[in-house]
Amino acid sequence: FISDDAGSTWQEVVSETKEDLLNVAFNGKRFVAVGTHGMILTSKDGSYWKKVQVNNNGTFRAVSCSEKRWLLITIEGKKEVFEDAKLE
After folding, report:
1. What is the CB neighbour count within 10 angstroms for residue 39?
2. What is the pLDDT of residues 19-51, one digit of tens each?
């Protein structure tokens, strides 16, 4: 869902996945959403999302970011770090 009025109203956005999405983060220029079966989606505006392929079929339960790096945590507690450019 996205809001263009500070959360007063919301519009549903199609994510292009049937996987459960468990967490999302924003680093000032890109959103990254993570979920089950290694699902990673990125968006620059929150409206249009693109799948990112990585070699992980586990469930990502959390994502955090700095300006140039993303930290993804699996359900088992494994940490994976990705450079921002890899998630384009």
Report:
1. 22
2. 999 999 999 999 999 999 999 999 999 889 999
For every residue of 61-82, DSSP letters joined together read EEEEE-SSEEEEEETT--EEEE
Nearest-angstrom CA–CA distance, 67 and 29: 9
Q: What does DSSP say about strands 50-51 and 60-65: parallel, antiparallel, or unpaired?
A: unpaired
β-strands 79-83, 40-43: how paired?
unpaired
Q: Considering the entire predicted model, what is its pTM?
A: 0.87
- Measured CA to CA in angstroms, residue 18 lies from 1, 13, 52 at distances of 15, 13, 15
Please give the Cα distance from 3 to 17 (Å, whole number).
Answer: 20
